[in-house]
Specification:
It comes from Natronosalvus rutilus. This is DsbA family protein. It holds the Pfam family Thioredoxin_4. By secondary structure, the chain is an alpha+beta fold. Helices cover 44% and strands 11% of the residues. It has a five-stranded mixed sheet with strand order 2-4-3-6-7. Strands 1-5 form a two-stranded antiparallel sheet. It is globular and about 45 Å long. The two termini are 12 Å apart.
Length: 232
């Protein structure tokens, strides 16, 4: 069942970051706190053509999926954990999309990493922590951790925070912190970034509904999902 008219109105009245986002497409230099071409408030800017990516699919990380893995409609979102616009999307928009479509298993929802990087240190460290959680506990845990860590974006990330969030969920917090500090998954994250560039991803959050890009606006996302569900 699609969202009701009342539910649609509530969703459509929600947050929008249309026309905005963290810009990618190359190597954004930063000092680990979002300074440089990407600032601490998530306004990243990278320049490059990605011409030498040539990604081997075996190098890519396992895609975190929630909802119905076999659903006819797929929503894919490319995100950078250092991106402020991704934090807005994930904290203000994604919960409604999850409630309306994911929890009822109407769609397949995929996360893809695209570290621009907006924040040179945290774009990779937090992503690596999230992948550590995924390897430990699975996809649902990945999204739980991701949702909570994005809630702290505005306060600034730290390794103590990463460990605390993991501990609060009952994960192996020491391992999650260690994987964040050593950026255990960096090679896979770099492959994900290169793959995104090959696909033409230009910034984050980059939202795709059944192969079509959709602006990061609640009404646009809801409309695209409903249209895709109606077609299938």
């Amino acid at each position: 069942m699609n969202v009701t008219r009342r539910r649609f109105a509530a969703l459509a009245a929600g947050s929008a970051v249309a026309g905005a986002g963290c810009l990618g497409g190359g190597d954004a230099e930063g000092d680990g706190n979002g300074n440089g071409d990407g600032d601490e408030k998530g306004n990243g800017n990278g320049n490059g053509d990605g011409s030498d990516s040539g990604v081997d699919e075996d190098d890519l990380l396992e895609i975190p999926v929630i909802g119905d893995p076999d659903a006819d409609v797929t929503v894919t979102v490319f995100e950078d954990f250092g991106c402020g616009h991704c934090a807005i999307y994930h904290t203000e928009m994604f919960p409604d999309i999850k409630d309306a479509y994911v929890d009822g298993e109407q769609i397949r929802y995929e996360h893809r990493d695209f570290p621009i990087p907006v924040q040179d240190e945290w774009s990779y460290a937090v992503a690596s922590a999230a992948r550590s959680v995924q390897d430990q506990e699975g996809n649902e845990a990945f999204f739980e951790f991701t949702g909570e860590i994005f809630n702290h974006w505005d306060d600034g990330y730290s390794y103590d925070l990463i460990e605390q969030v993991a501990s609060d969920f009952g994960f192996d917090a020491e391992q999650v912190r260690a994987d964040a500090e050593s950026v255990t998954y960096r090679d896979g994250l770099e492959a994900e970034r290169a793959h995104g560039m090959e696909l033409g991803i230009e910034g984050t959050p980059w939202i795709v509904v059944d192969g079509d890009r959709v602006e990061p606006d609640t009404a646009a996302i809801v409309g695209a999902i409903d249209e895709a569900l109606a077609d299938d």
